[in-house]
Amino acid sequence: MRRTKLLPAAIAGLLGLCCLLPAPAAGAESRDPSIAAGQAALKQGMAAAGKKNWPLAVKHYTEAQRRLHLSPQVMYNLALAHAQAGNELLADVWFRAYLGAVPQAANADQVRAEIARLEQAADEKVRRLFKQAEDLAEALPLAGESQLDVTGRRAAAFFSISVFRRGVGDFKGAYDDYVKTIKYQVKNLHSEPDPKSRALLGADLFVKTLAEVGDIEGALRLRDQLENGYERKNSTEKICFVLLFAGNPKKSMEIAAENDIRFDAFDCHWFAEAFAREGDYANARIFAERAGRESTYLFIAESQLSRGDIAEAVRYARLAGDDAVGMAIRGEPEAAFQSLKNSKPGVVSPYLYIKDLNRIIMNLIRLGDMGNARKAVGLAPELIKQKSRNDRFASGLALLGNLYLDVETGKTDEILKTMDRGLLLTNLYQDSREKERKGTEQEYAKERAEWLSELCSWAIERKQPAAAERIADSFAESRERIEFLRRVLAVYDSKADRVNTERLTKKLAGLLAEVQAGGWNPENPGREFVVNAWTDAAYALDAESALVNLPGRIAEIKKESSPDEMPVQIAICASEIGKGLLRIRALDRIYR
């Protein structure tokens, strides 16, 4: 595929600034292991960039960025490497993160001009990919592969392309492809849409896209243009669910009430959980009652217990019926243990009994019942032998329960070792084949970060700052590490521990000074908020293969897809890039 073409003067200027903030000189490496690793990755990235090996430079700069999250130097060099590698949208967001960190940078105007060129190139790429998908569809036979395929192969391909174009707001292109669906169909399954609906054919798909990329106001405006009552309602429901799962149940509930949207029992179950997580127990109770499921009340009971309100936790646990977790909360641990022994592993969640056991351990600790918490930990091997035949995954998951107890009893030296043992048991990284190793390694790193986050949050909840600090220092990513250390600092402060408060304050100041080298202004916390928004967007875009390595993705499609699948897969690539552009433009309206 064609790569971004930069104007000669622009590329010369940008490359000239690549070494504006050089990597640390020999002997200047940080004493902090994580930061030192980031500095080493930065050096490796600059060496790869010097050889114009842009994919390798991207790899090393990405590692440096994760360890030196707030470094404008790394953001800038990572953006430049992505631009040279042909990854327009990732270059775009990293340039924007750089400008968020140092908006008055000497090269700010030059970078903004480059951002405009990158977005234009991405727009062209989307159009080119949809055209490529259409050309592949045109080459397909009309007839279906069997008598059951009454639409026909060519018509089916054009219909799929039309759907993906609707999802990114290309209504004209979507309509043209839909017309070809009608033209090529073997039997008359599709008909010409009403003239009034042609301009916004399938707009409810685009409404969902706008909501997903964060443009809720744009989604609502487009929803209001729909004349078809069913489509309006369908679009409103999609907006509500996007908001719910994005962690904004209150806004979702308000929009639903304004538009007379009614949720079923299953939906109410998730609303109750979301409100309980926020501590909004009034709304959590309302939705729990609508859900009509006893287990829903456990969300509220555990949330209340985590905040120290034992009486309310017990009250809600009584509403949870015969659930083992609820039994433990209301002071019936032996009944809870027996319930787990009598339970049968589920087909969908065969390890639910271990997850429930871990929840019971946490709740017993919250209740101060350390004797039964230890008994619950000791019960794990018996349950695993009985239900999973010493299954490796179940054994690893059970170690998480041990960790909750270790945090409470102050065994900080063993926490990380035990966690890593559990992680190795719960994933197949060591057993993966070489060609699958990279993806599995990424999953392992993601799972490790999730375990660290859960344990650190637990240690903070339990007012165990020493354990929390030890866990926080184990994060590979600077952002998460610093955010958790700030929460640990608040715990020390709440305990009036002046010595550790002053020590950790100095430690945080030192860490921020090292990762913010190169123009960052630590006196302006608003800039950090902006940078975090853009880096979050970058991580989301980095998960889409078409945005990271489109030539490789196209080669994979040609190698592995059938002729009928190829036009659809190419259209998906176009859709991924188009949605990435929409996400960037929605964020730009907020953070410009």
What this model shows, in words?
With 592 residues, the chain is mainly α. Among the domains are: 8-142 and 527-591, no CATH class; 153-242, no CATH class. Helix content is 73%, strand content 0%. It is built from 31 helices and no strands. The longest helix is centred in the N-terminal third of the chain and has 31 residues, at 108-138. It starts with 7 loop residues before the first helix and ends with a helix. Mean pLDDT is 88; it is low at 1-13, 15-27 and 429-438.
Number of helices: 31
Sum up the overall morphology in one term: globular
Note the gap between the termini: 31 Å
In percent, how much strand structure appears in the residues?
under 5%
From the alpha-carbon coordinates, what is the Rg to the nearest angstrom? 27 Å
* Helical content (DSSP H or I, runs of 4+): over 70%
The description of the largest β-sheet is:
none
Structural class by helix and strand composition: mainly alpha
Number of DSSP E strands? 0
> Any low-confidence stretches, pLDDT <50, length ≥5?
1-13, 15-27, 429-438
User: What value does the average pLDDT take?
Assistant: 88
Features:
mainly alpha, 592 residues, globular, 31 helices, disordered N terminus
Blueprint of the fold:
Blueprint: H1 8-16, H2 33-50, H3 54-67, H4 72-85, H5 88-101, H6 108-138, H7 153-167, H8 171-184, H9 195-198, H10 203-212, H11 216-225, H12 229-245, H13 249-258, H14 265-278, H15 281-291, H16 297-306, H17 310-318, H18 324-329, H19 333-342, H20 352-366, H21 370-388, H22 392-409, H23 412-426, H24 437-461, H25 465-472, H26 478-494, H27 498-515, H28 525-542, H29 545-548, H30 550-560, H31 565-591
Helix pairs in contact: 2-3, 3-4, 4-5, 5-6, 5-28, 5-31, 6-7, 6-31, 7-8, 7-31, 10-11, 10-12, 11-12, 12-13, 14-15, 14-16, 16-17, 19-20, 19-21, 20-21, 20-22, 21-22, 22-23, 22-24, 23-24, 24-25, 24-26, 25-26, 26-27, 28-31, 30-31
